Amino acid sequence: xxxxxxxxxxxxxxxxxxxxxxxxxxxxxxxxxxxxxxxxxxxxxxxxxxxxxxxxxxxxxxxxxxxxxxxxxxxxxxxxxxxxxxxxxxxxxxxxxxxxxxxxxxxxxxxxxxxxxxxxxxxxxxxxxxxxxxxxxxxxxxxxxxxxxxxxxxxxxxxxxxxxxxxxxxxxxxxxxxxxxxxxxxxxxxxxxxxxxxxxxxxxxxxxxxxxxxxxxxxxxxxxxxxxxxxxxxxxxxxxxxxxxxxxxxxxxxxxxxxxxxxxxxxxxxxxxxxxxxxxxxxxxxxxxxxxxxxxxxxxxxxxxxxxxxxxxxxxx
Length: 317
What we know:
With 317 residues, the chain is α/β, with parallel strands linked by helices. The protein folds into 3 domains: 6-54, no CATH class; 63-207 and 285-316, Rossmann fold (3-Layer(aba) Sandwich), CATH 3.40.50; 212-278, no CATH class. It has 13 helices and 11 strands. Strands 7-6-5-8-9-11-10 form a 7-stranded mixed sheet, with helices on both faces. Strands 1-2-3-4 form a 4-stranded antiparallel sheet.
């Protein structure tokens, strides 16, 4: 028998994986059977999954999230605290918890829509064992940013069809992701099953209260979602010269009603957030009562409203 190439996928991750088709476990294929390719195979239905760059690829393409593949390749380190003087991602992540971030030490955490690894890095620094999942090729940016962390595992997969065992995680978080899926509520309800009893889920969604902003942004998106990503990136750079004008009281209100931009104080971050608004195929807006009902429907307890936008956390019985 050939040597098992299990070093390409961490044993801890193999133990967590479950075939979304049949519920079987995964094993590494012997090298001669691989033909030189790294793969894992389901013990139940024999489904083979390619492993590239140590990342199991449960999807064949980045499907409807190609804009995020472009975005996180170009902005790979923009939001990473390890590349900034100011730990903004740490502060933002702490907002999404109802306890000190240090309590994550030793806990297993699922980052559902990890992007380039912004919040995964923070959780890892806190001592958590993190599984990061993304449908886009941002997963490769996350690998570049965080490959030195032994306590991190990455998967390219669809949040609607995750290849993970139910009840495996102490914390599941999805911050600014679910509103970019075809059905935010359905994606949320699917994530709840991966919580252990007593585990928590934290999400952040776009708020739909500012009707003027939403109408203006959605009006532009009818065009920008059809344009090449490089063109929209060029348009998004207008957020840099427009920023000082939009800070003026009246001019800013008019400007945001005509052409919304991010008002983040950092110029590159501002371009990133503006691009992020205008390119995703799916983008939904929500309210607190609506999302609170999701938590109730999922049977979650101790539901708390957090900041920013529509942010909530709840506990599985």
